[in-house]
Each structure stands twice: as C-alpha cells, then as structure tokens.
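Q: Structure for this?
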Amino acid sequence: MGSLLVVGSVAFDTVRTPFGEATEVLGGSATYFSTAASFFTDVELIAVVGEDFPESHIDFLKSRGIDLTGLERRGGKTFRWRGEYTYQLNEAHTLETHLNVLETFRPKIPEQYRSPKMLFLGNIDPELQLDVLNQVERPRLVACDTMNFWIGGKRDALWRVLEKVDVLVINDGEARDLGQDSNLVKVAKETLARGPKHLIIKRGEHGVLMFNQKHTFGAPAFPLEMVKDPTGAGDTFAGGFMGHLASTGDLSEAGFRRAIIFGSVMASFTVEAFSLDRLRCLEYKEIEARFREFKRLTHFEDLS
Amino acid sequence: MGSLLVVGSVAFDTVRTPFGEATEVLGGSATYFSTAASFFTDVELIAVVGEDFPESHIDFLKSRGIDLTGLERRGGKTFRWRGEYTYQLNEAHTLETHLNVLETFRPKIPEQYRSPKMLFLGNIDPELQLDVLNQVERPRLVACDTMNFWIGGKRDALWRVLEKVDVLVINDGEARDLGQDSNLVKVAKETLARGPKHLIIKRGEHGVLMFNQKHTFGAPAFPLEMVKDPTGAGDTFAGGFMGHLASTGDLSEAGFRRAIIFGSVMASFTVEAFSLDRLRCLEYKEIEARFREFKRLTHFEDLS
C-alpha cells in the first residue's frame, strides 16, 4: 500500500525569465510535486508522457524513488508549455500550450495504488479529478489544486470535487476567481462553508495563507537574493506540504503548519534555478537548515 | 524632554474606495503617525496647517495627548490630497494634490523639543529632513520615510539623510526605486551598506520585511474581512512601531520585532474605517488582543 499518490501533468517547459531561459526542460505539476514530496515520503505518480519523453528523465524520477508504475507512455508528443516572466516574477505569461497526449488523458489508477494514504489531485479537469476519486478507497487526506480555466469553465464539476476533498491548494488569483470576491478572508469563509476543511492560498513571493474553521495561519515566503525561475514553485510547495504530512501522519493544526513551512522551504529552493535543477542536487540537511532559518525569519516574542 | 518627535504632514483627504468615500476628512502622514504612537508614548507633532483647520481636529489630537506646541497655524489653506483605490487596495491613485501651506513649510523645532529620545522624519523634502536633524541633539533613534518623488528628484540629498538615520521605513515600490533593483534582498544589502542600520519594507496586504546586517524578519499583514480604506496604513504602522520602541526603549532585535508587530496591529485597525475613525474609538486592550492574534496567526513549532 502506497503512501502518497499524485495525479497531474508531466511536461516539457520552455521558459524565459529576466535571468535566463531554458528550452524543452523537464516540467509539469506532477513532476514538481512528486520530486518535492520524494524528500519526505514514498510517492506514486499517475501521469502521461509521449514517445519523445527521454529515458534520462525517467531515470531522474526513479532516482528520487518515485514509483512510475502509473506513468503511462503513449504514442504522440508529451505536453508542452511555453511561458515567460517579467521582473514581476509573481505572474507567468503563457505563450503556448500544446496539450498533446494530455488531451485524451484518462487517469487510470493501477490496482495496487487504490488505497493510498494520501492523494493529491493536480489541476486537471475536475471531471477527471472526480473520476480519480471514484477509483480509490477514501484516503486519509485528499488535497487538490485547480486553475482559472476550470474555475471559469467547469465551475459545477469543480464544486463537486471541492465537496469531497480535505484541502484546496490554489494561488491568490484563483482564490479570488473561485470566491468571486477580492477579499481573501471572505473567499475563505465562502469556500470553507461549501467544501474543503482547509484552504491554502499561495501568494508567490508574498507567502502563504491557510484558513480552516478554527484558525488562520500566515507565513511569508523565504526572501531570496536570486529568483531565477518561479515555474513549479506552487507545485513544489504542494509536494513538500503533502510529502511532509504523509511522512508524519500528523493532521493536527501544528502538523499542518509545519507542513506548510516545509512546502515553502521546497518552493524556495525550486525558484533558485530553472526546471527542477535545484532539487536535483538538494540534500535533506539543507531542507532542515532552511526550515530553521524560516523559524528565525518569522519568530517574535509573545506578550507576557 | 520629550519622548517621540515626528515631523510630517497634516492634511485633508478626499478618498474613494470600492467600499465608500470620504470628503475632506482628517489625514496626513504625521496625523496618522502621531495618533498611532500616542497609544504607546508621549508624542510631539511638528507640522503646519492652514486657517481652515477646524478646532475639532485640534481637540481630537489633544485628546490623544499629542503635544501640539510645534503645530504651526498659518494663513492659507491646509494641504489637501485626493485619491482613490480600486479593488486592488494595495495601490493608491492620486487624483489631486494641493500643497497649500505645506509648500513653504520649514519645520522649526521649538526649543524644548530639541533633545528628543526618538525622532521620525515623515516623507518631506530630504533637504528639510536634514534641516530638522541639524536642529536637534542626536536622538537615540532616528527613523525616516520618503517617497518616489524624492527618490527620483533629490536622490543625493536623500542619501545624505539615509547616512544619518538608523531606520528607513518605506514601501516595496519605493524600495525598488531606491535600490534600482526588483529584488528586495539585493535592495536591502545595497541600502544597508550605504546608510541606515535597519530597512523596513512595508508591503501593504502582504505584510512587512525588516532587514539589518544580522537578521531578516518577515511578518504577514493581519488578514481582515473588511478593508475599507488603506489610506494612512503605512504611517500608522510607523507610528505604532516607533511609539512602541519609544515606550520600551528596547532596541534589541527582539524589541524591534515586537515593535513591528505593534505597528502592523495599528495599521490593521486603521484600514477598517475611513480617515482615523477606527483609531478614535480604539482601546489599548484591543491592541494587545490583536497582538496575541498575530502571534497565533504566525506561530509554528521549530524542529526539535
């Protein structure tokens, strides 16, 4: 029985930022997620790639201990995304999207993965997210992401997903679209009333907010002197967050908060280089060291 | 001998936000600053108003215990600012500025205020900031603010000010202009190398960062369900920050961090209503209660 199951995309990204560019490099939400999570727990990846997906990328994912039984290889080309960032690094401008094999992707969960402890549904079509939920025994924790495209185009299906998940992890723009309000506290109230027990709002360089019925938690992003490429930061955050939760099994408020900091730590490494390059050479002791730096960054003494 | 001396503007503001509007209400950087600081310490206000400034505003400032000996009343009209905010509440759009009596304002520090413990220089012309510094014995702590107009137009004079102050308190847009870099960590390094020992960057709804040679501190803004009018939030922050520092005299890292949270608390109240209306009815116990909420908002357990 597996620990953490993720369904999402594996892609080739072509990215330009003010600090360089990268062409057809390894990307995709499930790639970033599973690589980040692999520092904490066992991960099974459900995704699809084309004939053009090289063995070297497979080898990398395997080297991270990621179970690729559910990685479907199909005739055709791998999903491709091309985008750029200006100095306003918080926002990606999509220039091209070629869904390719992703267009007809119907996630099929292999028999041995149907009782995951935890499940993360990447930002695929909400109908497919529902389909995945129907294929598995209810995990102890289900989290999902989504994107503006589905918030606008498949709102009803998306709410049906949200009624079934424990944690929704989205960015601030998506949250405002979903809640149809500019105020994130109002959006959180509305969302929690209708669906997930926890809403995590990623704000890029401005950090993270988590809302649930009892508490609000806020953490800044780790201040970095060099952000080379923000691509994958949000997925890496989710991977570190879920990976850490899966490793401890601690679903208390304190456990969630720590997991959010681990997610933020992982995201802060990812943006230091293009693609997953920073994660390729990352060691666990660096993760712990940055967690401690996060504590020093945010700590202040309470009133006596 | 006074405790905290502030030099800045007193104004009539006309403000429109998505949640309402206010016409010719009490505003100005020194007004917000001194009112916020007055919850913590004795404040002396150096500013100028015109003949049209009503006794009721004077009475309000006096009711907060603010010493108005240095508030000059002059023939002519009080400084007026008119601006609006869209749903993107972080950014004010200035529609009109009438300097009026502020145009020829030359702050003159009354004899009895020339040995302040602490001094805050509002965002007036850096030449005037220097002039104020020359009129006083070096206080234990000097902080200043500035604005894009001076960063662009009086850069050299501004750097001469910055070499003489301990703390620079500016917003993120101003910081990027000052450091001529989009990365705030780089801006901080550059700024600290040339001038103040502490750089505090206000990021509106995204909170605050403080940099000094040894530490970085980050705090989110307090998440609010209703932000009616962000006008004065930054000045209120500075007032709460300096007011608390003046009250404790604790200039350690821990003291600075607590003061930053008190500043954030004060700002979070100000934006709940137009003008200084929320501060008019604020009680100290509410400030402490929100400080404790801030602690709960940001706390997470360190690694063992």
